[in-house]
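Something for you to look into today, if you have time. Could you write out one complete protein record for me, on any chain you like? The space below this message is yours for that.
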Amino acid sequence: MPTFSKTFAPEVITPGSISRLTFSIDNTAEPLPAESLEFTDNLPAGVTIAGVPSVSNSCAGTVTASGGSTAITLLSGSVGANDSCQVAVDVTASTPGIYTNVSGDLTSTAGNSGSATDDLEVTRLAISKGFIDDPVSAGGMVTLRFTLENFTSSAVTSLAFTDDLDATLTGLAAQGLPLADVCGAGSQVSGTSLLTLTGGSLPASGSCTIDITLQVPAGAPPGDYPNITSNLSGIVGGVPTDAPPASDDLQVTVLPLPPGFTKSFSPATVNAGVASTLTFTIDNSAGILPVTGLSFTDNLPAGLVVATPSNSSTTCTGGTLTTVPGSATVAYTGGTVAAGGTCVILVDVSANTPAIYNSISGELATSSGSSGIASATLTVVLAAGAIMNVPTTSSWSLLMLVMLLAVSALWRRQINPSFRL
């Protein structure tokens, strides 16, 4: 005859959480099928079928399991020779404790397979954790957050747990420890590669959160690194109790570097009033991923403006390029450069006054961080053969100059008779 068993998964839950109750009927050792499979499971007081039961059944027949009720029934099921089947239902419980669940007997045409038993524990305490700002690149910083909860109506003291960071990733190290009073007065978390909480306390129905900064080793390969704590231990109402470990994966990835950012004028020397093409180059040729969110503003130096027409264009994907003729601003936002690619932004500029124009852009912001500024120099000269206006002196001005010189000479002769005009 088939064997009959049951399991809760997980076997330990926090109050109000869901556990999947699975009944397994194993006929793999039998050469004949078992027909008319029937059983009823009356859940223990305090445990109910979840509001959404999520019933599954591979045993044929009819399963009855209504949300909020306490009875699960299979009628007229069957399992083939050398085969097995399962019935599964979500259940829940709100009050901390250990609930032993013994089903009724499984009967079939093959005989009575007896009952099935398993325990569901609703924990008094709980610990959860998460790397709240990963994925992180090798050599970067990441925050590990622990949350401790007390589900009882009594205070809990002597809370303690450990977390072996080195077992997760060699060289993964906490920064800035020890920290005091992190979960109740007198509590402390300490360590570098082995984190240890001691002396924690929580009031009835209380919780605390502990954030610890970790540095990922510079040589860490990309990947997912499972991190598991010890059990959380504590004393509730004078009775030692514990909660199962908490776990999360640390995701280490290769974050793309910002693309290169340069600018140039072509030609670099022009006559006054003649346009030069200003080119911004965004170089992602070394990047293994596309870079998005390309944005920068270039405020041109005084006297240098966007030409008319601007003849502006870009080979970057998407984005908005703003180049108003006569203005002194070039702006680009929201663009993308392909992995391994390079794109350019072009705009004509001009100046009417001969000078050397040193042009420095704002930073290029990207999804991979700042690419910094770009700079270039444009020299504007007077065209060959051009006539510059030279100030002239009027006739009256010349006469006055001659008279002043004569008076000066006479005055010098009077005080020095040997002076000759």
In short: Helices lie at 165-168, 395-415. The chain has two helices and 39 strands. The chain has three domains: 3-122, 125-253, 261-381. The domain at 261-381 is CATH 2.60.40.740 (Immunoglobulin-like).
